[in-house]
Amino acid sequence: MDVVINQARAQAQSEINGNDAQTSSWQVNIQNQATSYAGLKSNLAMTNQQLLTYIKSQVIAEFEQGSLVVTIPSRS
Q: What is the pTM of this model?
């Protein structure tokens, strides 16, 4: 019985360690993106709205065209 418990604990710890590593990697990636966008905004003297428009266009360009749905609000 102790063997089963030890195996379960090892498996759980392995998953926790994997999740922690994935989270750390994600945080570094997000921080790098934020730093890059801040530099882009500063170097090109962009407004917040211009930067958001740029980011949206980049996200749209990265999607597979067959699975992309775009909603355009009306000007009422």
A: 0.63
